[in-house]
Amino acid sequence: MSLARILLRPAAFLAGRHAAGQVRAFLAAHEHTAQTQDRVLAELLAAHCDTAFGRDHGFERIRTYADFVSAVPVRPYDALKPYADRVLAGECGALLPPGERALMFSQTSGTTGEPKHIPVTSRFLAEMRRGWNIFGLKALTDHPEAWLRPLMTINSSMRESASPTGVPCGAISGLLAATQKFIVRRMYVAPRQAADISDALAKYYTILRCGVGRDVSIITTANPSSTIRLIEVGQAHAGRLIRDVADGTISPPGILPPTLKGRLRFRRDAALARRMEDGIRRDGQLLPRHFWNVALLCNWTGGTLRLYQRRLHELFGDVPVRDIGLLASEGRFSVPLDDHTPAGVAEITANVLEFIPAADYGRDDPPTLRAHELAVDGEYFLVISNWAGLWRYSIDDRVRVTGHFARSPVLEFLSRGLYSSNITGEKITEHQAVEAMRRAAASLGAAVDRFTLQGRFAATPHYELRIEPAEGWTPRTLAEAMDRELAALNVEYAAKRHSGRLGCIRAVAAAPGHFDRAERQAIADRRGRGDQYKHRYLLTEVLNADDRG
Q1: 116-120 and 369-370: which strand pairing?
Q2: Which residues pair with 454 in a beta bridge?
Q3: Using CA atoms, how far apart are residues 190 and 264, in angstroms rounded to an integer?
Q4: 3-state SS record for 112-134
Q5: 59 and 18 in contact (C-beta within 8 Å)?
Q6: pTM of the entire predicted model
Q7: So what's the pLDDT on residue 178?
Q8: CA dist., res. 134 & res. 147, Å (int)
């Protein structure tokens, strides 16, 4: 054990004891799921009684869950947006309890074009951090070989933009990393400022360079495509990386802020450089095992993201993978307790969770079930209320119950909504696809009535635009224009395109009359009931590289 690890042991012991207490309390809460949810609801209502939302919905008169359901309807973000916009403009009391302010706004893609802004308060941040503590300690308990060894995180910036009053807007992962406990921050291999590097290539190279030469044990990020991209950047610039390791320098391809570059310090390591060269000669490519002994990968594995598991295995071999849970800008809603499963126990201690049966989703006033009322193998859409000022918010996540932990459901993420597509975390909705096409067609003077957009998982995942050619434009120019417009409408799509995790939309020319024939066939399959036919512009099933369109 290194001297640094020996010196850190007392602080780690104290931090571990605190986290262990949180784990015990969390696990015990699931023995009394209904009572725990009643307690969380009562605490939320009491704290938010004097907010504008609380007054408008009569929080002072709510005594039971049935009262809550009567007073507050299930709603999408658009119905909560007027209150969130008031907080964004500086009127914190619209959604936040007295004395609370927004430390930042967690920004994520909305269903139309305008991003959602979720207020992050000190209490909300504390609940998110507690969830990570529970997740992290359980993972370290299961993988003790990672204890007190360096960690690598790949985060986005918490300062992608600013509110009208100057409050940062961006990714909550950046704030969590910046405000983490000292003992945890001490384990990070890359400085928190790395999340703010705007040049995607320079960002990935810098994070990788900061990790090479350190005994990285765990790599944590939301999307597995980020981990893959990190290693592939190293492979593409292996010669540069090896020279940097040998010389104790950093020379990223791309633009690195001079202030950050001046703060980075590395030691010469000719032995490691030779080992990396030997590894490339032996394996034909640079692989993580040439410079790390990784104990665990932590990232999403559910839904379409399971497609990345084969590539992770190619790069990292048999390193175990643990899903980070049902986690979003709006909060944490599950905590996985085991490796190699996307399922996690419901996070009932930080949220009031409700579930719409999948068959009832889309109704104006859908029925909801509580966490202790769900059936194994049942599919539901998640509804949340929590410390972000979100009330009976239909988050549009479809989940399946894979089992029970004590009296709580174990949840597996399936998909985003009924009509949305997601390959790397971009969460495109059909509304966005149609609007992007409308704008693209207008810019080219094209008349487009029908098309389909569908994701394809390949070496560089991308979307395919299937459309019938017409005079005055080509499918390729239309696909390129649509790509630009979709990036303007969806901040997460733009981020994935900028980082290279998604490729540009590719055009696939459909034969003349293709969509007419498809419509006639669909109506025939419905026994001639044409009134029920609705053209699908966004196809949610992701194609594999070898699937033929």
Answers
A1: unpaired
A2: 464, 539
A3: 9
A4: CCCCEEEEECHHHHHHHHHHHHH
A5: no
A6: 0.82
A7: 84
A8: 15
Judged by phi (left if over 0) then psi (alpha if -120 to 50, else beta), residue 445 lies in: left
**What is the identity of the amino acid at 163?**
S
- In the predicted structure, residue 530 carries a pLDDT above the cut 50: no
Measured CA to CA in angstroms, residue 123 lies from 37, 387, 544 at distances of 17, 7, 42
Q: Which residues pair with 428 in a beta bridge?
A: 421
Those residues whose C-beta lies under 8 Å from the C-beta of residue 301, and which sit 6 or more positions away, are 224, 309, 321, 323, 340, 341, 342
* Local structure of residue 75 (DSSP, 8 states): B
Question: What does the pLDDT read at residue 537?
Answer: 86
CA 334 – CA 321 distance, rounded (Å): 16
Average of per-residue pLDDT values in the chain: 90
Instruction: Sort 53 into a burial class: Cβ within 10 Å, 0-12 / 13-18 / 19+.
Output: buried
User: How many of the other CB atoms lie within 10 Å of CB of 459?
Assistant: 9
What is the distance between the alpha carbons of residues 474 and 78, in angstroms, rounded to a whole number?
A: 36
Per-residue tokens: 77: 């973000």
Strand partners, 334: 346
Tell me the pLDDT band of 527, cut-offs 50, 70 and 90: very low
Q: At what angle do helices 475-489 and 491-499 cross, to 10 degrees?
A: 120
Q: Are 306 and 278 in contact (CB under 8 A)?
A: no
CA distances (Å), 475 to each of 159, 506, 510, 535, 538, in order?
A: 37, 9, 9, 20, 17
pLDDT surpasses 90 at 130: yes
Distance CA 185, CA 546 (A): 43
DSSP state of 307: G
Domain architecture of the chain: domains with CATH = 11-122+339-416 (no CATH), 144-319 (no CATH), 420-543 (3.30.300)
Q: Could you give the percent of the chain with pLDDT greater than 70?
A: 93
Contacts of 251 (CB under 8 A, 6+ apart): 240, 243, 244
Strands 344-346 and 334-335: antiparallel
| CA pair distance 467, 448, nearest whole angstrom | 9
Span of 70-74, 115-119, 271-275 with lowest mean pLDDT:
115-119
Rounded CA-CA distance 403/392 in Å is 24
Q: Widest CA span of the chain, in angstroms?
A: 77
- Cβ(388)–Cβ(123) below 8 Å: no
Number of other residues whose CB lies within 10 A of the CB of residue 447: 10
3-state secondary structure of 386: strand
